[in-house]
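Weekly structure sync - notes
Attendees: PM, LS, DV (DV joined late)
Agenda: review two folding runs queued last week.

Item 1: First target. Sequence and structure tokens pasted below for the record.
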Amino acid sequence: MTSAEVREDLVEALKLDLIGPEPGGQHESETLPMPPSRWYLTGYLVPFMAPESQRREVTADDELDLIGTTAGTDDDAPPERASARKVFFPSSIGLSVLVPSATRSLRVTAEWGEYKLLQEPSGATSGQGNAAAGKSVQNWRRTQRAETIDVTLPAATGKSSSKEVPNSNGVRIVASVRTIRIARPEGNDSEPLLPEGTLAVAIFLVNYRPPAPDEGKDEGLIFQTFLKVHADQPFVARPNLRGHDTNDWDERVADVQYRDVYEYAVGHGVATKASVSGDGQCHEIATEWMPAADVEKVEPALVPGVELSMEALAGTSSAQEMQQKLSGLVSGYAAWIASQRTGLNLKGRRLEVADELLRRAEFSGRRIDEGIRTLEDPIVLEAFRIANRTMAAAARRRQAQIEGKQPTELAPPKWRPFQLAFLLLNLRGISEPAHANRDVVDLLFFPTGGGKTEAYLGLAAITLVLRRLRNPGVASAGVSVLMRYTLRLLTLDQLGRAAALICALELEREKDVTKLGQWPFEIGLWVGQAATPNRMGQKGDSNRESARAKTIAFKNDDKKPSPIPLETCPWCGEKFKTTSFNLVPTADNPTDLHIVCMNRNCDFKGDRHLPIVAVDEPLYRRIPCFLIATVDKFANLPWVGQCGALFGKVDRWDKGGFYGPCDPNRGSKLEKQLLPPDLIIQDELHLISGPLGTMVGLYETAVDELSSRAVDGRTIRPKVVASTATVRRAEVQIGALFARQSVEIFPPPGPNRRDSFFARIVPVTEIPGRRYLGIAAQGKSLKVVLLRAYLALLAAAQKAYEAAGGKKDTNNPADPYMTLVGYFNSLRELGGSRRIVEDEVRSRLEGYGKRLRFGEQEGLFAKRTIGFDAIELTSRVKTNRVAEAKRRLASPFSSEGHVDVALASNMISVGLDISRL
């Protein structure tokens, strides 16, 4: 059994637990020990005329954020109260479709389950009982119902008709019809959006049964309701009006790319699913209480005839040879664009959009070609070669840690085509500061896990080396690359990968100090005090948050958090020990925190410490060439004068670092001021929105000014690149944040969503994609929905885990589902959900394995209490706890550190690098 097959079992278990059995299944004639409206969460309809006591729950209006406390958080003010409108259980479900003008009737199938209350002596039915011996018990026995009727459409539009379903005791089918005014899109010669005479038809299944008495009210309800509509003539697809009638570029692109995807129905109180035949026609539409959608996997495409080996590119001897190895990118891309143009079968606005998409692709192709020709400059060529060599060394080290092998035993690291193209695309803007490409913001758009990080780290390597080659001596020091994140977890997640690159660069520099400069390559972590110390500290200062205090505490007790949020050596993977952190020159009055590896085979052991600066005080003095920061840290700019050093605002230096106006009388005078940052990388751009985006935009004005310089009367601004896995209205957002008007998305989207030359969409038939399920439970509170869904998924995963061999199978296919991760829009909602998880979920899981229908010997669920744990990943949690939680989430369940439930704010999701979840 595979993990995908386990997922199918979990989905079926969830449906059965929340909605109920499907026709023909083993539970079709089940007997329940309690009323089905208490057993099931959704899928049922109450009588239309039922009293209010039967149509709603008292707790239906409860909100998650009314539970628990989030004192001290940024959203601890009471939220606005929801409207006083009462929430009722549904009495009907329906769907709306479009049909041709000749349609006169539709064949409608209604299916449901009805439950009968049975008074039986205790013990009369096998299984669990709910009364003492000698007394009667109340059982609910299910009967499956299904009826098919022909529904004649009303002759007059705007009218409705009603027809009772046979043998239903009051269940009715209600239909209404109206004509649609046909409009032709303005401004082009496209065909009308709909055929002439198209009718809009709404079909409803309504429970008009007489209400039953309160003690047996569920006899009047119908459960597991299902509605299917069949038409002899095919249904008419609903047009995408948003794509036709808008000037929003994203909507127009979506209209072109999804022109082969049609919507045939809209559900009312329920979702719908259309059955499309092989000829592309739809004759049947049905309702779905738990809709599912698969997101297909996006993979980097292969480009033949291009040298992708990093080490082979690093060993290239001449620009001509390099051009031969890389020119296949340009020629292959040009051929792809030409083939896309010849295959277009579009008109009007869609043709205009497709032409613009291909024009942008041609522009990117020209920039890639320019980047290859830029390598004719010997210094740029050398920077490109060194960057490839160091990226390969870092990649070997990282993969060796993953596979448990020696770096030399691995296959030569290779670029993915889009990564290499991204480097070449930006090469001219990096190497020629006055070029127009410098002001273009390049947005790297690729799904999570596709390789964005390697792409911009490669660009960073080129930028760092190029500055060293063009500015011999100490003048090449200073921050060259500034990489920013919105959250601690994102920052810490990337620190190790970026640090490995800096380690490789530093080893490369030591081989030729004359070429790459006497000042070391270093990486700095500039985040809040909760993650890294702001001050070094000294004896007697009583500062528990200083680097000195944290280092001494860790040396005395390795159970305490380490001074910096890095657990292992980024170069060899060895876990840091208490002796790895050293206060220099003395422990009583330190000026630096040096980190060394205890692995005797590591390059960074003994006197050679890791090139990592993670304390603010030495960071302002060392000015590391690569700076990783959170966007909120820039609030220090107006308050901490030493921050100016990060933008080259220093005039003196010595072997200990650089000094500006805030550190007078230290060091000797520099011959010239250090350069400001050359490259700004903004990862996870989509997270900078709302109030956070407003504040970041304000600080960005200062950052842009401090990073700019005048050359020959022209202002040179830093190159800005951004990355995201979800892009929408990118031009507007980037314009507001960076005041840059030119934005290019890479890889550029094409007219065909499944192929952009650099990426392709893999059908779920080849590789299972991510699956999203929808749960609608009208009349139920969000607390109840969350509780029931968590219980079902956790208990069903336990059952699947045990069935697959449990801990005995180290590759248990159910292992990925043993941790449940929940995301929430606010800390307030998360706090309420955490209380539910810790109290109710924990207590109920033990008994959920006994949730059996009468006659069952073994249910869908298993008891789950051992080791149950709930962790939180938010700004309220200490950084060391966040790092520990991330490590535990990445570990298999069969290890000692498993997690049952992880609760995170919605923005944390992109920081979880957990491929198994």
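Item 2: Second target, run right after the first with the same settings.
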Amino acid sequence: MTELHIITLGGVRVLMNGRDITADLPIKIIALLIYLARHKVPKSREHLAELLWPDRTAKQAYGSLRTAISKSKPFLGDILHTNYHEIGINAWLDANRFEELLQTPNTVGEALSLYEGDFMASFFTGDARDYEDWQLRETEKLTEQFMQATVSYIGVLQGVSRPKEAIVLARHALGMSPLREDLQRALILLYHTAGDRVSALRQYDVYRSLLWEELGLEPDISLQALQKQLERSPLIPTITEYPLPTRLTSFVGRTDPLHHLDRLIKNNALITISATGGAGKTRLAIEMAYRLRDNFRDGVCFVDLSEITHADHVLPTIAKALGLPDDPNPLAQTTIYLQNREMLLICDNFEHVIDASSVIAHWLNHAPQVVFLITSREPLKLYGETVYELQSLSLQESYQLFYERLRAIHADFYRTETVDNQIKAICQRLDGLPLAIELAAIRARTMSLDEIDAGLSLSLDLLKSDLRNMPRRQRTIFATIEWSYSLLTPAQRTLFHRLSVFRGGWTHEATRVLSPDTDELMPLVEKNLVRRLFTGTHRYTMLEPIREYAFYQLEKSGDCADAQNAHAQWLLRFAEESERLLRISTHSTIITHIREEEENIRVALDYLATQPNQLETYARIISALSWIWNFMRVVNLPFHHAQQAIAKAEHLPIHIRASLLVGGGHSADGLGYHDLAEKWQQAGLRLYLEIGDMTNVYYTRFFVTGRMVNSAESIASLSDLRKIALQSQDDYLLSMVNINLGVTLLHVNNIQKSKIILEEGLAVCERNQYDMFIPIYYLNLSNANYANGDLETSFKLLEQSYVMSQNDGNTFNEALSLLELCELCYSIGRMDDLVAYLRQSERLVKDLNMPIVTLKFYFWRGVLASRHGDIPQFYTAYTQIFRNIHLDNTNMSAYIINSLLYLIYFTTKQGNFLMECATLLGGLDAYRDSLNMSYWSFQKKWRDNALEALDHNYTAHYEHGTSLTITNVLQDAEELLDKLLQ
């Protein structure tokens, strides 16, 4: 029998038949499971959709719910009980079990043992604000139940003479709520009753300090009287507990590190938490200390090494923390003390006293029951050391940390979509560094979120705190990084500075371009100033706050211009080598490299745009990358830079100027600036002809042909280029030509020849591993099979195109594939699937902001609106269509015909404006004939239905329409749209 267990107290885990499937499920599905299990009754689909996707329309939210459930089916099976209206669940939930056990006196202890922390601790949905409010209310309710039950049960344990269990329980509860006076009082009295006056007085001092720091208050009179009574009572010798640092703030995120460290501590003698400054090593170690202090017979001792300045001071500091008196031989003294103890010894901030690691090595051999947990910005490099590299917070954890700290500052803080976006921008800039996020949140006391974001873009000096109870090294982010910087050698500092010109990471090979001191890279990695990445190619990177600090030091050194010029020269070699490999090598590898260097490309081009004496380097990079950008559909960045370079290109060598003009034409064409693209590429073509570079003449002719409006002329030109490519055995040119030739043949209804050409091109691409073109071929072959009536093959090819585009990150073809799937779904009546595909495409279309995909997206949105009789929504969709129509782009012709024909069909179906529709249909037929294009099957149905409504009474209007230009037809169509709305 399938059993679903959901853990929510102290963190979220979903277990299916004992197997942890948390990582396999979408966040929103986990939230759904918990919500349903907590309520114990089914909930309506509409309510759940609105709760979890509040920023979407009702239809979008409903679809998102359905998609999320579908994606989770392989992991959940039939655990969700769904019908058309409701969703329910049968699951064991620890929060529910906790409340059940509290109802019976005999099971209260079992209930309290279930409560390992706050309800859904560190769980964050991201944008479901109402859900978050529910989660917060449930947390407060369960926490109060736990606290009240704890205080009551402590009395029960005292009554049956079980003081040690009562002390453990009180400490556990205070770990979650240190300001609870009733629990503080209970713990002090428990120590007193147990005869441990020292621990009782220490607990009073801890509470008093905490109360003063947080609220500016003293303990109440009764507690002060108890403290005086304790001071007067006789000292009873006993083993005291080691004091732990007070947890002044809630612990956010890090669920996996906590579990991982727990396992490591159980199985290893020396564990080092290694990370850069400000990454949260100390806070994580403190949290582990509280969680594990009852797991070791002799407790947990926390030693702060941050204030000492020399390795010789480490031993005395540890001895003092252990409660040992001064001794002339502290190593022998502490070794004797530790050798028979079973305890966890935490040494915090070891990096600046790393020479004292021999002390830890000595104890590893002479204190076998002691576990050492070290926090350091670099490993100790001892035999037997297990290094746990603490990663930055995820973006989701970063949001949650910022929200938590913001709530502590502003009790009336309220989340909105605007606030979410502002915090997202701040957290993305801070790269998941907890200290930076904490300092930014502190700024919210006196600054708006917009001001914080703007300030961060100017200087990280914004990230500083005036809180007196923060360590000095953590009061500004610069001071935190400088702590590590001060430990570097001069050669390491120079390399650290120069590496800051990279953005988004770099390869080891790229390091050599900037500095001869490449041997110093690994020490920077070991000190956690540089991070190794193991995704894609082997790369290195810096967290953004660290990179900004390094760049600040680079500017101070006077070496900035030299480093930026070296970076630009490296990028030039990379770009031109990528262009060369594009025609002879596996595309996927080149695309991966280009994507990895996107930030480096952007920053280098921005720099070169300001350097008049480096115009040739600037132009060569733009030209080389334009080939790849063209097929990746990256347009805004190259257009901006191409436009600047072309304006100054008069004195460039002729071949560079030609390449720049053709490259600039790619991005202009992608943005819909077809006249400008034609101007630039025709100018480039003339220059190539002038210098006799026939290879580039043929390629430029191919790009120019893509804007030919007349299908017959386009077919003739492409057929000629195909012969040239076959004769010269230029497979790269052939693979490009065959795409456009196959599509154009399909437009004129030459389906069989279109398939032959497309299949030939696909075979060429597969043989040469031209991966960028393969999903494009799949998409167009899908259209050819669709036109031939083979819907099954068409679906398979489109799905292949979509999956491959998604895997390759080709968002343009991914969006087109989804929109073509909409068309297929419409043709066979699968409207629910059409809605799902259209929703999936929406984000891609908005991000691309390209006329063709935008037009096609709004066409299907308009179709859906018309089916529901929603004229305003139909009007809005068609307004967007008309805004994105470009008559000088032959690739858009089919979409123009589609959109106008459906407008006519929908209007005639309403029985309205039949004269206008007849005129439009005449103009549309004439436009189609001029392009030598044919109507597809569903288009024929629309046209036949329109003609049926228009009968012979409207023949004169139809004939009049045939004399109109397509520009006039579009103007009339916009007027008809306005009439529909009225």
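Discussion on item 2: Residues 235-239, 464-475 have pLDDT under 50 and may be disordered.
Action: LS to circulate a short write-up before next sync.
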